[in-house]
């Protein structure tokens, strides 16, 4: 009996829905900790460490820039040799150490400056080390958790092939709920109870996320790392360049194939030849100098490896289209926040909604849209399109772009009305400013856009990336967010400089937005989004989906076999 039980345990397939509670619990705890830690840091730096505002802002900007680059490092480590599970686990421990260090400095009086004094060099050193550790930690967590969760569903199993897109919906939903709690409950604790508790709770929650994630280890599917993906891409480039003068073969079937060589990077199925970028195919032409049995990969590569590079290149234009959307989204924490500060935010006579809490409407809208999309939109779309997922991720992203464009257009018109009421409130005694409710549509539309575009973007990276490069591809999602924020900073700087006049007028004045032309800035972003939408539609129209010859499970004996027909993944565009 004992032997039979052991045999059944060994044969039980790993992964699947049973792993989701552990991964979602990890994501919920981790996001609550990270957002609760980061959201109110400007207040901690200025009020607890007595930093000047500009120095505090620059500190957080440098921290944000570092944290946005480290996902590329974490993805490389994961895909090259460590694997996603161990990358997430070790990165979480590094993040935990950083948070413990910062929490300790908030609790121990000697680690904070006295009232009226700025932080000393030693106190700042603790801060910078803590921030560096959290930046390194987030770099290993961000690109790997989402991809690791999606890998729990076996693409070769017909029963699980449609589970991945559902996973991304609920992954984002769980993340949104955690952020909602962080920007409300955790921020309230930091402001009204104390920073010891305000940082201590996220630190403890982070510890719970690590324990929960590691506890599920026996249940997870583990995809082994297949070596440095960047090295393989460079090898194809070098090989193609080295054979640039070699005549192209007349038949693609003559290009080099080696299933044994590709086994570690094509466990679910191999990429097949596509007609685009044929100059790269020269890397797979066998010449007299090549030894097909033991190839020098700097001279000869398989079709699968060449197609890996083609897939990455094809993803580039779609990746770039997401930058402008983030630029539009970023205005919520800058100019939309300044709008809210000038408006009537009273919920009761004695309670006024904090301007920083306006993001609640974005998060709530995003969560509601995710539920609507999963429970109502997909079943309806499925009847029309015949696709199991209702619409593919390119359609989903396009809807997000359209909604985001509408959001900034609406924001411009609301600004005209807000400014008119603000002027009247300033000149007419007893006249109230415009209610904050007028800002809810633009916040809500941004939340809807995120539910469509951001989740679709993440899904696109995971699905269309080569099998062995999924952590790296997911890191590109975070890189587009980083570049979108940097573009916002650049755009604000240019507009502020170009629109400055000798009489002191400016679209984006430093002191009083009522004297500016913020609506023009919103419409400028709207115009950029319209151009970006046209660009995206063209990219999506000509995009070639990753062609894979899948290995599918035979329901009869459970053995893997090749699908003789090439499946063009989600080819109904």
UniProtKB/TrEMBL annotation:
Gene3D superfamilies: MFS general substrate transporter like domains
Residue ranges of the TM segments: 93-112, 124-150, 170-189, 196-220, 351-373, 393-414, 475-500, 520-538
One MF term in the entry's GO annotations: transmembrane transporter activity
Superkingdom, taxonomy of origin: Eukaryota
Record's keyword terms, sorted: Membrane, Transmembrane, Transmembrane helix
Membrane topology per record: Multi-pass membrane protein
UniProt xrefs under InterPro entries: MFS_trans_sf (IPR036259), POT_fam (IPR000109)
Broad class of where this protein is predominantly found: membrane
Localization: Membrane
Cellular component annotations (GO), alphabetically ordered: membrane
Family to which the UniProt record says this protein belongs: Belongs to the major facilitator superfamily. Proton-dependent oligopeptide transporter (POT/PTR) (TC 2.A.17) family.
Name listed for the protein in its UniProt record: Uncharacterized protein
Organism (species): Carnegiea gigantea
Taxon lineage: Eukaryota, Viridiplantae, Streptophyta, Embryophyta, Tracheophyta
């Amino acid at each position: 009996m004992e032997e039979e039980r052991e045999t059944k345990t060994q044969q039980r397939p790993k992964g699947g829905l049973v792993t989701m509670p552990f991964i979602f619990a990890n994501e919920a705890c981790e996001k609550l900790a990270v957002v609760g830690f980061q959201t109110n840091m400007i207040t901690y730096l200025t009020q607890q460490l007595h930093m000047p505002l500009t120095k505090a802002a620059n500190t957080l900007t440098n921290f944000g820039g570092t944290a946005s680059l480290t996902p590329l490092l974490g993805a490389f480590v994961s895909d090259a040799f460590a694997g996603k599970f161990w990358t997430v686990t070790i990165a979480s421990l590094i993040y935990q150490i950083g948070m413990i260090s910062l929490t300790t400095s908030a609790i121990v009086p000697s680690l904070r400056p006295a009232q009226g004094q700025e932080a000393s060099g030693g106190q700042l050193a603790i801060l910078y080390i803590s921030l560096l550790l959290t930046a390194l930690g987030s770099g290993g967590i961000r690109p790997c958790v989402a991809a690791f969760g999606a890998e729990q569903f076996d693409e070769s199993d017909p029963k699980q092939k449609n589970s991945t897109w559902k996973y991304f919906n609920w992954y984002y939903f769980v993340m949104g709920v955690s952020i909602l709690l962080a920007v409300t409950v955790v921020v309230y604790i930091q402001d009204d109870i104390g920073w010891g508790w305000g940082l201590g709770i996220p630190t403890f929650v982070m510890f719970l996320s690590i324990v929960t994630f590691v506890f599920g280890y026996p249940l997870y599917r583990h995809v082994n790392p297949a070596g440095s993906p960047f090295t393989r891409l460079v090898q194809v480039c070098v090989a193609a360049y080295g054979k640039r003068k070699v005549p192209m073969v007349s038949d693609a079937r003559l290009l080099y194939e080696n299933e044994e060589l590709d086994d570690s990077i094509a466990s679910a199925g191999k990429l097949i030849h596509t007609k685009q970028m044929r100059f790269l195919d020269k890397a797979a032409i066998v010449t007299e100098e090549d030894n097909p049995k033991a190839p020098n990969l700097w001279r000869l590569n398989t079709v699968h490896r060449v197609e890996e590079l083609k897939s990455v290149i094809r993803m580039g234009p779609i990746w770039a289209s997401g930058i402008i959307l983030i630029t539009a989204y970023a205005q919520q924490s800058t100019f939309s926040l300044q709008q809210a500060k000038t408006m009537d935010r009273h919920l009761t006579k004695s309670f006024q909604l904090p301007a920083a809490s306006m993001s609640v409407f974005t998060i709530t809208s995003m969560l509601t849209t995710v539920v609507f999309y999963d429970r109502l939109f997909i079943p309806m779309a499925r009847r029309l399109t015949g696709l199991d997922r209702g619409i593919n991720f390119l359609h989903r992203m396009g809807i997000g772009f359209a909604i985001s464009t509408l959001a900034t257009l609406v924001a411009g018109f609301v600004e005209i009305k807000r400014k008119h009421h603000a002027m009247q409130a300033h000149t007419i005694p007893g006249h109230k400013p415009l209610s904050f409710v007028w800002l809810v549509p633009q916040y809500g539309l941004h939340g809807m856009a995120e539910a469509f575009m951001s989740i679709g973007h993440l899904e696109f990276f995971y699905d269309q990336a080569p099998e062995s490069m999924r952590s790296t591809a997911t890191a590109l999602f975070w890189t587009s967010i980083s570049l979108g924020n940097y573009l916002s900073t650049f755009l604000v700087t240019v507009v502020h400089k170009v629109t400055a006049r000798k009489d002191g007028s400016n679209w984006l004045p430093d002191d009083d937005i009522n004297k500016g032309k913020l609506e023009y800035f919103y419409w400028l972003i709207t115009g950029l989004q319209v151009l970006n939408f046209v660009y995206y539609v063209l990219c999506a129209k000509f995009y070639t989906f990753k062609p894979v010859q899948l290995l599918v499970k035979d329901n009869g004996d459970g053995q893997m076999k090749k699908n003789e027909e090439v499946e063009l993944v989600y080819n109904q565009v």
